[in-house]
Specification:
By secondary structure, the chain is α/β, with parallel strands linked by helices. The chain is about 35% helix and about 20% strand. It is built from 16 helices and 19 strands. The strands form 3 sheets. It has an 8-stranded parallel beta sheet with strand order 9-10-11-12-13-14-15-16, sandwiched between helices. A 7-stranded mixed beta sheet has the order 1-19-18-17-8-3-4, with no helix packed on it. Helix 9 links the parallel strand 12 and strand 13. The longest helix is centred in the middle third of the chain and has 20 residues. The N terminus is likely disordered. Bound molecules: N-(iminomethyl)-L-glutamic acid and fe (iii) ion. Fe (iii) ion binds next to loops.
């Protein structure tokens, strides 16, 4: 199989419009964030119920100058376009050939930028070493920090490009990217700048997050009360620099026993909010640490991992979910799987409690070296018992809300960015079912074809 990226979307570059037809299903995900029994509501248009993929009433998606302008039966959408002053002759046509169309996937939690790799830790963990034990011995995150500090701008950008391309091939059109392997102002700013530049370069959108409080760096560990001193350094030195740079959209903290306490996390996130950075949290990944409770208290965009939340934490997120801007539970099942944990995060409890669930890769060199959201959907179905439909909502509309871009991407609705994927399957339920397969046929970003898998 040869893969080719289409430079600048030249395939459809000369027409301002793009009309996708011939789909067996279009999962629009229209209607806003999903929670509770609506978690698996895909707002699905089914060709079989509309006369078949070739029928005049079959579902189509129309894009104009990068935005969705119509979705629905062809015999309603096409006259609507003409009536709205968008001549059909100016639409390039793309045949989905019986495939499934979904919104471009959104990966709401990645540590995209780092140097080096840590395959040695997989073997150490197989031999019984704990994740935090490796970190405490100066390995883990700290070994990636040492490699990342030594890497220049270009090296980090080349790495980021390579993995963004991998994500694109798996249907991802928007990525949240955390800093957090610098842990000094200069390197944190470099990571945020590279993330921003990669997003501008495209085609994948990159939303940078500042994660200065990812671990206590070596130079602070040597000091008495080093964690506290580093928290003060983050608040007094790094945050003002990050805010002045203006690249980060939100601030994250690794709130975990033995890393940063809930109280330290609160102080950092409140200071960050003062600079306009939305809060988000690595919460309750390895032990219940008050992370879910704190995320709800602060109205965080997202609480992530939630592998072992307390009952009070689930209840707090459930309360927050009743409001207009719920904190999204962003679950990262590839991490639990790669850490060989016995139990997965309690996804069904969150869904039953009405908490919106998103899924991310957590792409990073230590706990989740995968850039494949479709693989994460599979793991979520197998280990957390999400249905395929729930998993799809979790990597589209809910993931977009977790990143704070829910008004712009994550569903196929008029006015939103025309970010779409055509999958080589005949039903959405097959997306997590064909384990590890490359199912992406075509990726459209802002109305342009940016990737085609030429078989
Ligand atoms: O989300 N838990 C903290 N951070 C990452 C892992 C980072 C690393 O090990 O390099 C995570 O799992
Ligand atoms: Fe993470």
């Amino acid at each position: 199989m040869t893969l080719r990226l289409i430079e600048g979307g030249r395939a459809a570059a000369d027409a301002p419009g793009l009309l996708i037809h011939g789909a067996s299903q279009i999962a629009t995900l229209a209607g806003g964030i999903r929670r509770g029994t609506a978690q698996g509501d895909l707002a699905l248009l089914e060709a079989a119920e509309m006369g078949g993929p070739g029928a005049s009433s079959a579902p189509v998606v129309a894009c104009w100058e990068g935005r969705i302008v119509g979705v629905g039966p062809r015999d309603l959408v096409e006259p609507g376009l003409e009536a709205g002053g968008l001549p059909l002759a100016r639409f390039a046509r793309l045949d989905a050939d019986g495939g499934v169309v979904t919104p471009g996937l959104v990966d709401p939690h990645t540590h995209l930028l780092f140097a080096g790799s840590r395959e040695n830790e997989l073997v150490l963990r197989q031999q019984g070493a704990g994740y935090l034990e490796i970190l405490a011995a100066g390995g883990g995150i700290l070994s990636t920090v040492a490699a990342t500090r030594a890497a220049g701008h270009e090296e980090l950008a080349a790495h980021g490009r390579r993995w963004l391309e991998e994500m694109l091939r798996h249907g991802v059109t928007t990525v949240e990217a955390k800093s957090g392997y610098g842990l000094d102002l200069q390197t944190e700013l470099r990571l945020l700048e590279v993330a921003h530049e990669l997003g501008r370069e495209g085609p994948v959108d990159v939303v940078p997050t500042y994660l200065g409080a990812h671990a206590v760096p070596a130079e602070f560990r040597a000091r008495p009360d080093g964690a506290e001193a580093y928290v003060r350094h983050v608040i007094d030195e790094q945050l003002p620099g990050v805010a002045a740079q203006g690249r980060a959209r939100s601030c994250d903290v690794f709130c975990e026993q033995g890393v940063f306490t809930a109280d330290q996390s609160r102080r950092i996130l409140e200071a960050a909010a003062g600079y306009g950075l939305a809060p988000r949290l690595h919460a309750d990944e390895l032990a219940p640490s008050g992370g879910a409770e704190l995320a709800a208290e602060l109205g965080a965009l997202s609480a992530d991992h939630l592998h072992v939340p307390s009952d009070a934490g689930v209840a707090a997120l459930a309360d927050a979910a009743a409001g207009e801007h719920p904190t999204v539970a962003t679950l990262l099942p590839a991490t639990t799987w790669f850490l060989m944990e016995e139990r997965a995060a309690p996804a069904r409890r969150f869904i039953e409690a009405g908490v919106p669930v998103a899924l991310g890769t957590d792409f990073n060199p230590g706990t989740s070296p995968t850039a494949s959201l479709p693989l994460v959907m599979t793991v979520a179905c197998l280990e957390m018992r999400l249905t395929p439909a729930e998993a799809l909502a979790a990597v589209t509309v809910n993931a977009a809300h977790a990143v704070g871009v829910g008004d712009e991407v994550g569903s196929i609705e008029p006015g939103k960015a025309a970010d779409l994927v055509i999958w080589r399957v005949s039903s959405v339920d097959q997306l997590p079912y064909w384990v590890g397969a490359d199912l992406v046929d075509t990726v459209v970003k802002r109305g342009r074809v940016v990737f085609r898998d030429a078989l």
